[in-house]
């Protein structure tokens, strides 16, 4: 199902962490959540980890 831009609901980082908090130990919870429009994938559908690292390099440099 594809939602129109006006029908999409926005979710915050805090809501995602609060949702998974009861299911995981405290030290397993993520420090941060990064929203991306699209994840880079290979032609067979695997995640391109190298491309993800390159895209997020500046994000981690700030932290």
In short:
Pfam families: AMP-binding_C. This protein is 35% helix and 0% strand.
Molecular structure report:
By secondary structure, the protein is mostly helical. It has a single domain (11-62), classed as ANL, C-terminal domain (GMP Synthetase, Chain A, domain 3, 2-Layer Sandwich), CATH 3.30.300. Helix content is 35%, strand content 0%. The chain is built from two helices and no strands. The protein has helices at 13-20, 49-62.
Question: What's the arrangement of secondary structure elements?
Answer:
Elements: H1 13-20, H2 49-62
Protein name: Fatty-acyl-CoA synthase
Domain AMP-binding enzyme C-terminal: 2-46
InterPro entries: AMP-bd_C, AMP-bd_C_sf
Low-confidence stretches: none
Derived from helix and strand composition plus strand pairing, the structural class reads mainly alpha
How far apart are the termini? Answer: 36 Å
- The CATH topology assignment is GMP Synthetase, Chain A, domain 3
How many β-strands, per DSSP? 0
Mean pLDDT: 87
Q: Give the C-level CATH assignment.
A: Alpha Beta
CATH superfamily: ANL, C-terminal domain
Please, how many domains?
A: 1
Percentage of residues assigned to helices: 25-40%
**CATH architecture designation:** 2-Layer Sandwich
Q: Overall 3D geometry?
A: extended
Query: Radius of gyration in whole Å, from Cα?
Result: 15 Å
């Amino acid at each position: 199902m594809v939602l129109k831009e006006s029908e999409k609901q926005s979710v915050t980082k805090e809501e995602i962490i609060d949702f998974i908090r009861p299911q995981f130990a405290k030290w397993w919870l993520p420090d941060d959540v990064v929203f991306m429009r699209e994840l880079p994938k290979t032609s067979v559908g695997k995640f391109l980890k190298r491309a993800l690292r390159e895209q997020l390099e500046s994000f981690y440099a700030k932290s």
